[in-house]
Design goal:
Distance between the termini: 132 Å
Strand order of the largest sheet: 1-2
Helix content: over 70%
Oligomer: single chain
Number of helices: 1
Number of strands: 2
Radius of gyration: 49 Å
Order of helices and strands: HEE
Shape: rod-shaped
Length: about 130
Amino acid sequence: MKKFQEDNQKFTFNYSKMKEAYDELKRVSTNYEEHGRMYFETQERIKSTVEDKQLSINKYLDDVASLKLKLEETKIENERVVFRLKSYSTVRYILEHIIPKPIGKNKDGEDVYNNGGGVGYNRCPPPINDDYT
């Protein structure tokens, strides 16, 4: 009987150790599951935030690209207008200086032009740099 009591004490001792180990394992497992759930929730929030930020960045990049395109179009339009203004200036110069102007009318009512005599530069081409000053 004494042997049974000793065996019983050993089993009781082993059972209490096993129960403590099981409780510790249960606590660690629960803690691990809680951390895993929190990690998953945090990861989902981070993914959502990154997606929102990426959409915002893409929108800003699209805005910058469209503004750059508008700027280039405006530069081209500006060059076209400047070229046209220069051509108008050159045409005005031709009309004012190269094409002969009538100096009066004859008795038949026809325009009379200068015969080319006298001092003047009315047949000169425009300056090279379009600098009329």
